[in-house]
Specification:
It is built from 19 helices and two strands. It has helices spanning 6-25, 31-38, 42-58, 60-70, 72-92, 96-110, 113-124, 130-158, 164-184, 195-202, 211-240, 246-253, 255-273, 278-297, 301-314, 316-329, 336-365, 369-386, 395-401, and strands at residues 403-405, 412-414. Helix 4 packs across helix 7. It is globular and about 50 Å long.
Length: 415
C-alpha cells in the first residue's frame, strides 16, 4: 500500500476541521432569528446545541471500536458524508422538532471524525512532531469557527438571505472534503507481524484508564465546558448584553479562533521540545480560566476584547494540541482511535450540558454572565486535579499494565 504523504494528511484533516467547526458555528449568530421563528426561550435555544453535542459525544466511544473493525478512513468518510447531508437537511426543517432531529443526525455524522482522524495522524507522525502537527491540524477549527460566525452573520443580516442559506451553502464543500479524504488518505494500523500484539492491546482497556488518562479526561471536560458554552452564546451575549450589532458579532467572536492559531502552533511546538508537558498544561488551563472570568466581569469594552484575544491565545484551542500529544505519549499506538474516542467523549460530555445550563441560568438570573463564571471555576478545578498526574509511566506501572517498550521504534505495546 502506498503511504500517504504527511502534508496531504495534515491539509485534508485541516479542511475537515474547518467545515466541522463552520457547521457548528453557523448556528450561533442566528439563534435569535431561529428563536423568533419558532418562539423559543433561551433554554430551548441552548437545547439546539445540546442535542447536537449529545449525539456527537455518543459516537465517540463506538467510533474507536468501529474504526478497529472496519478501518479508520472508512468510518471517518462515511460519517462525514452523513454530516454533510444532515447539514443540508437542517436548513429544510419546517418545525423546531425536525430541526433538532437533523442537528442530532449531524452530530452522529461528525462524531466519527475525532478518534479516526487523530488515530491516523498520530500513527503517521513521529513522536517529536506530534504537538506541532496536531496544532496545524487543529488550526482548522479556528478557521472554521471564524468562517461559520462571519458567514452566518453576513448572509443572514447583511444580505438578508435567511438563516437557512448558510446550512445549504456549507453542505456542498463538506461532502467534497469527505470524498477527497476517502480518495487520498491511507492508514496503516499495523502489518501482519504486529497483528497479534495489537489484538492483545485492543482487549486491554486498562491501558486507557491509568491515573494520568483519567486526569486528562477530567481537564478536557473542564476546558471544553467553557469553550462550547462561549461558542454557543458569545454572539448572542454580545448582541443582548453588550449592544453589538448582529452583523458585527461574527467578526468580534472570531477574535478567539484567529488568536488561537499562533497560540496553538507556538505551544504545540514548545510541547515537542520540553521533557514534561505537565507544567505547560496546568499553566494554559489556569490562564484560560482567568480569561473566562475577566470577559463577563469587566464593564470596559476594550478590556473585554483583550480578554477574548488572550483566551484565543491561551485557552482551549492552545491547550488541545498539547493534550493530544500528551495522550499519544502515554498510550500504545494501536489504541489511538479508542483513546481519542474516550478523550473526546469526556470533553464533549461538557458540551452536552454547557449550552443548556448556560441558557437555563440566563433565564433564571436574567443574564449570561453566570455561565462564564462557572466555566472559569471548572477549569481551575481541572488544573488543580491535573497537578496529581505522574510524570510518566514508570517501570512498575509498565509491569502492572503489561506494557513493553520497543527501544528501536519508541513504540509501546501490551504483552
Amino acid at each position: 500500500m502506498k503511504k500517504t504523504h504527511p502534508a496531504v494528511v495534515i491539509f485534508l484533516f485541516f479542511l475537515g476541521w474547518v467545515f466541522m467547526y463552520a457547521d457548528r458555528n453557523i448556528l450561533s449568530p442566528v439563534m435569535g432569528e431561529i428563536g423568533q421563528q419558532w418562539n423559543l426561550d433561551k433554554a430551548h435555544l441552548g437545547l439546539m446545541s445540546t442535542v447536537f453535542f449529545a449525539a456527537y459525544a455518543f459516537m465517540q466511544i463506538p467510533t474507536g471500536f468501529l474504526a478497529d473493525k472496519f478501518g479508520r478512513v472508512k468510518v471517518l468518510v462515511t460519517g462525514y458524508i452523513l454530516f454533510g447531508v444532515a447539514t443540508y437537511l437542517s436548513g429544510t426543517a419546517a418545525t423546531f422538532v425536525m430541526f433538532l432531529m437533523m442537528r442530532a443526525l449531524t452530530g452522529l455524522g461528525e462524531g466519527t471524525y475525532y478518534g479516526s482522524q487523530y488515530g491516523i495522524s498520530s500513527n503517521l507522525t513521529p513522536k517529536k512532531y506530534r504537538g506541532i502537527v496536531s496544532a496545524l491540524i487543529n488550526s482548522g477549527m479556528a478557521f472554521g469557527i471564524s468562517l461559520g460566525f462571519i458567514s452566518a452573520s453576513y448572509f443572514t443580516y447583511t444580505l438578508d438571505k435567511g438563516w437557512q442559506f448558510s446550512f445549504y451553502l456549507f453542505a456542498i464543500p463538506t461532502i467534497v472534503i469527505a470524498i477527497l479524504i476517502g480518495l487520498f488518505v491511507r492508514d496503516s494500523q499495523g502489518g501482519n507481524k504486529k497483528q497479534h500484539v495489537q489484538q492483545q492491546e485492543r482487549g486491554n482497556l486498562k491501558l486507557l484508564f491509568t491515573k494520568n488518562h483519567i486526569f486528562v479526561y477530567i481537564i478536557i471536560f473542564c476546558s471544553l465546558y467553557g469553550f462550547f458554552g462561549m461558542l454557543t452564546w458569545l454572539p448572542y451575549y454580545l448582541q443582548t448584553a453588550r449592544g453589538v450589532d448582529g452583523s458585527q458579532t461574527g467578526i468580534i467572536s472570531s477574535l478567539v479562533p484567529w488568536a488561537s492559531i499562533p497560540g496553538a502552533i507556538f505551544f504545540g511546538f514548545i510541547s515537542d521540545k520540553i521533557k514534561s508537558k505537565k507544567p505547560l498544561i496546568i499553566g494554559l488551563a489556569l490562564a484560560g480560566a482567568v480569561c473566562q472570568l475577566v470577559i463577563p466581569y469587566t464593564e470596559n469594552y476594550s478590556l473585554m476584547i483583550v480578554g477574548l484575544v488572550l483566551y484565543g491565545l491561551l485557552g482551549k484551542l492552545a491547550l488541545d494540541p498539547v493534550l493530544i500529544s500528551y495522550i499519544a505519549d502515554i498510550t500504545p499506538s494501536s489504541m489511538y482511535s479508542k483513546v481519542y474516542g474516550f478523550f473526546n467523549f469526556s470533553g464533549m460530555l461538557s458540551s452536552v450540558f454547557a449550552p443548556y445550563i448556560t441558557g437555563y441560568f440566563a433565564d433564571v438570573t436574567g443574564s449570561l454572565e453566570f455561565g462564564f463564571y462557572l466555566s472559569g471555576a471548572l477549569l481551575i478545578v481541572g488544573a488543580i486535579l491535573f497537578m496529581f498526574t505522574d510524570k510518566g509511566i514508570n517501570r512498575d506501572d509498565r509491569s502492572i499494565l503489561g506494557i513493553n517498550k520497543d527501544h528501536k521504534t519508541g513504540e509501546e505495546h501490551a504483552v
